[in-house]
UniProtKB/TrEMBL annotation:
Organism: Streptomyces beijiangensis
Protein name, entry field: Lipoprotein
Regions of compositional bias (Low complexity) in chain numbering: 38-48
Signal peptide start and end residues: 1-27
Disordered: annotated span: 32-63
Lineage: Bacteria, Bacillati, Actinomycetota, Actinomycetes, Kitasatosporales
UniProt entry keywords in alphabetical sequence: Signal
Keyword Signal set for record: yes
């Protein structure tokens, strides 16, 4: 008789455990579908999303390093945020250009004077790197059609507008740690080269 009661007790315990497990599974899947389960499930996610949104915004100014910044008489500011020497034998310089003036501005003269780059108007095609120690100037890379490996700006900059850019050059020798970045009539900017991964 005691064996029979033990079996019944085990079955009842197993049934309770299975029922409890199913109840937790159903509750975890969102509840009855009347929206209550949905809002309670999504409410913990909201603080994560909000804090996730705030963290990159507050971290973005710290994450962006300014290597150099130069300004023209027309209140155009060029900022260099990265100058990376890649394993492929070239250097990629990137950053942002800001129109701090109160009128529209087009970087027409930034394409440079080279005939081969004549079709690269309003671009970074006229940029160059100068290795003062090695006494060598590096012009922008271009493809076989004469298109520069750089940003081409579409349309004029509005007053206060900021846009990002990149420009690629042949890499100076590994001994050149600092170079001058120059474009158009802006003053030269001394930038430190870093090694890419």
């Amino acid at each position: 008789m005691s064996m029979r009661h033990t079996r019944k007790a085990r079955r009842a315990l197993a049934a309770v455990a299975i029922a409890g497990g199913l109840t937790l599974t159903v509750a975890g899947c969102g509840g009855s579908g009347d929206g209550k389960g949905k809002s309670s499930a999504s409410s913990p996610a909201k603080p994560k999303t909000q804090s996730g949104d705030k963290t990159p915004e507050s971290a973005s100014p710290e994450a962006t390093t300014t290597l150099a910044q130069v300004k023209s008489g027309d209140n155009i500011t060029l900022t260099v945020t990265s100058a990376v020497r890649d394993t492929g034998g070239f250097v990629t310089v990137s950053g942002k250009v800001t129109n701090g003036s109160s009128k529209y501005w087009t970087p027409g003269s930034w394409a440079g004077d080279e005939q081969e780059l004549a079709n690269n108007s309003a671009s970074m095609a006229g940029a160059s790197l100068v290795d003062k120690n090695g006494k060598k100037k590096y012009l922008i890379l271009r493809d076989t059609s004469g298109r520069c490996l750089c940003t081409k700006f579409i349309g004029p900059f509005k007053p206060g507008e900021e846009r990002t850019y990149y420009a690629q050059f042949p890499a100076p020798p590994a001994s050149a740690k600092t170079v001058e970045f120059q474009i158009a009539d802006l003053p030269p900017a001394n930038i430190d080269l870093s090694d890419g991964e």
